Amino acid sequence: MTAEGQIIGLVCSGAASLAGGWWFIRRFAQARHLLDTPTSKIRSAAQGYAEFYGVLVASEQPALLGPLTQTSCLWWRYKIEEYKSNGKNRSWRVLESGSSDAWLQLQDSTGNCLIDPRGAEVRPATRQVWQGNQRHPLGSAKSAWAALFSAGKRYRYTEERLHVGQPLYAIGDFRSHGGGRQAFDLNAAKGEVIRQWKGDFAGLLQRFDHDGNGQLDEQEWQRVQVAAGLEAEQRRREQSLQPVQHRLGKPAERQPFILSCAGEDELVRRFYWQAAGGALLCMIGALAFAWLLGVERF
């Protein structure tokens, strides 16, 4: 083996070992997070990292249409790939991809929860894959064999969707708003009111500058503080009368944020198998690296 070939082999095997180790740690940790987080009911869930299981229902937002099939849905993700062949090198190259960011609504036996899907690992039950000879699909989907013998370039289309009535397992950061459930910090709320009033300083002077000198003296500023405290209390009372709204989103920490039509048990099995694959890749890469280090240079 040449020195150049040995160096390339060392780099590739080392990278494979590191990637496999990282994948093992990531998937194993995610599986443990799912197992260690108890399933909660929406109405009684504690604030913070939580896990739910329910059914997707229609929200007040208009229904979406899948960009490739024009099928009505609640969420979509798509990908358009082009087939490339250069001698022995054959591959699919991604031309376009994207996903919707409209909020979802999950319902269980105790209530509803809005879900912001941005940043989530979404695993939908509905997935369509087909091929064609145009950049954007038109008409009915072609099978892979029909597309193979069509003239022109080959494209592969993938569209995944979430629909009303599908089961959904969701784990992420849970927060409730309204109904007086939030902790109330009077000083912080009063400071926010004053900052808003300062945005219209002319209006602030008109209300509290009683001597008309264009400034707020100490006595007038005390009146501002008292009025701001009363305004903050009034806003809290109005907010407490609003119905409770539950929301689920991406956690601030590196905890899994997963939306899946498959249940927790199936997800955990998949993650453990993927972790095992990562561990195997790490081991093979490490053994190859050690073997290459021991190869004599000629």
From TrEMBL:
Gene Ontology molecular functions: calcium ion binding; ubiquitin protein ligase activity; zinc ion binding
Residue ranges of every copy of the EF-hand domain listed in the record: 196-231
GO biological process terms, semicolon-separated: protein ubiquitination
The protein's Enzyme Commission number: 2.3.2.27
Keywords (A to Z) from UniProt: Membrane, Metal-binding, Transferase, Transmembrane, Transmembrane helix, Ubl conjugation pathway, Zinc, Zinc-finger
Cellular component GO terms, alphabetical: membrane
Subcellular localization: Membrane
Protein name per Swiss-Prot or TrEMBL: RING-type E3 ubiquitin transferase
Organism: Pseudomonas xionganensis
